């Protein structure tokens, strides 16, 4: 099978998800050719860095070096050429804009039966969204489904949402995964203390982190409120202190005037990000909705307990009371974070449970075979079998 992956969301979790899938497929005899095409965003890595993520067997194509509106024009232009070439058996679109444009172009080019779409997050499912906005996003998803009705979703809860909201859609579930073996190196590094000293060697200091893009989807106002409440429990000058870091970047203004309380790391190379994540004590992950967040899968693989919003995609990763906690309000989330930080045995137990769950359910092994099974279930690519 020859496959082309296409996205305009060429950074953060979507990029990690797609490049992980492309790498696995490219090293399998089931796929004779794997290509990855993208248009840049402001926070996209350089092309050679993306090539490093996919591995050398994936052909990587930057269809536009501009991060402005022209990139969508370039995306459409190159899509037309790729679809008309007939080179690929399956064209897999990732994220809503690429999915909308891609399925429309595929329909016009007569390649709709070969096109499949992975949203990685349904905008209409965001918590706190106004009714008009929710209706508009849902309308766009339903309209695009007329051009291509085959979806590969990344979690069971996202699949259930798709079936309930998009009548007549064909859905296959291919969960996001991580390479647990590679994560073990970072876990060992953190345990040997190579991450450097805490802020004050005379005090016990805990690290609380969020991971990802600072954007409305990540509900930064909830994170902000939770951190304010957490600092009330660990006031300056107390014997126990906290460090709070948002590992990522984006619209920093959404965090308000919290520079004294929340460090923003900026975009980090993957190795550095994993090092800093492995050194955390708790991940506090606020969100309005997800497909299945790669950040939480990596945190779980590193054995970091997670306190997170109870939303689509997140509930597939965090097993409440076993690998972390799920909540909704600032008080509820802070209560769980405080409980973890003040109970070493609970934190150790959840570390172990998190890594076990990651190994059993979310490991990269057999990803290529499972992706082929998903494509076959949707009758894509001529029915290639393992």
Quick structural overview:
With about 375 residues, this protein is of the alpha/beta class.
Topology (SSEs and partners):
Elements: E1 2-7, H1 12-26, E2 33-39, H2 47-54, E3 59-64, H3 70-85, E4 90-94, H4 96-108, E5 115-118, H5 131-145, E6 150-153, H6 156-165, E7 170-173, H7 180-191, E8 204-211, H8 220-233, E9 240-247, E10 263-264, H9 270-278, E11 282-285, H10 294-301, E12 306-309, H11 314-317, E13 324-327, H12 330-341, H13 344-361, H14 367-377
Parallel strand pairs: 1-2, 1-4, 2-3, 4-5, 6-7, 8-9, 8-11, 9-10, 11-12, 12-13
List keywords for this structure.
Rossmann fold, globular, 17% strand, five-stranded parallel β-sheet, single chain, six-stranded parallel β-sheet, alpha/beta
Taking the alpha carbons of the first and last residues, their distance comes to 11 Å
Radius of gyration: 21 Å
- Net shape: globular
- Provide the low-confidence segments as ranges: 194-201
CATH topology heading of the largest domain: Rossmann fold
| Structural domain tally | 2
Average residue pLDDT: 90
Percentage of β-strand residues: 15-25%
Biggest pleated-sheet summary: 6 strands, parallel
Total number of helical segments?
Answer: 14
| Percent range of helical residues | 40-55%
Task: Identify the CATH architecture of the largest domain.
Answer: 3-Layer(aba) Sandwich
Kindly provide the name of the CATH class of the largest domain. Alpha Beta
């Amino acid at each position: 099978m020859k496959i082309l992956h296409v996205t305009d969301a060429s950074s953060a979790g979507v990029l990690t998800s797609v490049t992980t899938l492309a790498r696995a497929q490219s090293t399998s005899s089931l796929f004779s050719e794997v290509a990855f095409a993208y248009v840049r965003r402001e926070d996209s890595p350089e092309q050679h860095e993306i090539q490093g993520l996919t591995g050398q067997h994936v052909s990587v194509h930057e269809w536009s070096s501009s991060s402005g509106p022209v990139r969508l024009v370039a995306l459409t232009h190159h899509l037309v050429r790729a679809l008309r070439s007939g080179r690929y058996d399956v064209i897999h679109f990732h994220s809503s804009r690429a999915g909308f444009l891609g399925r429309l172009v595929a329909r016009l080019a007569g390649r709709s039966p070969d096109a499949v779409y992975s949203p990685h997050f349904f905008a209409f499912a965001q918590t706190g969204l106004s009714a008009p906005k929710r209706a508009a996003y849902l309308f766009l998803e339903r309209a695009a489904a007329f051009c291509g009705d085959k979806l590969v979703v990344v979690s069971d809860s996202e699949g259930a949402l798709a079936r309930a909201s998009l009548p007549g859609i064909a859905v296959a579930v291919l969960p996001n995964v991580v390479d647990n073996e590679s994560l073990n190196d970072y876990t060992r590094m953190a345990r040997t203390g190579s991450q450097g000293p805490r802020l004050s060697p005379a005090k016990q200091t805990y690290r609380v982190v969020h991971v990802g893009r600072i954007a409305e989807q990540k509900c930064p106002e909830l994170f902000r409120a939770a951190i304010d409440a957490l600092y009330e429990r660990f006031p300056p000058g107390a014997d126990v202190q906290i460090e709070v870091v948002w590992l990522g970047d984006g619209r920093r203004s959404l965090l308000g005037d919290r520079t004294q309380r929340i460090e923003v790391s900026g975009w980090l190379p993957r190795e550095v990000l994993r090092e800093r994540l492995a050194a955390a004590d708790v991940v506090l992950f606020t969100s309005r909705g997800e497909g299945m967040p790669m950040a939480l899968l990596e945190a779980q693989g590193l054995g970091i307990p997670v306190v997170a919003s109870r939303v689509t995609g997140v509930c597939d990763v965090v097993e409440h009371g076993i690998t972390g906690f799920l909540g909704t309000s600032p008080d509820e989330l802070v209560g769980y974070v405080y409980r973890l930080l003040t109970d070493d045995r609970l934190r150790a137990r959840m570390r172990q449970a998190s890594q076990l769950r990651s190994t059993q359910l979310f490991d990269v092994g057999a990803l290529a075979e499972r992706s082929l099974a998903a494509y076959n279930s949707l009758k894509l690519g001529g029915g290639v079998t393992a």
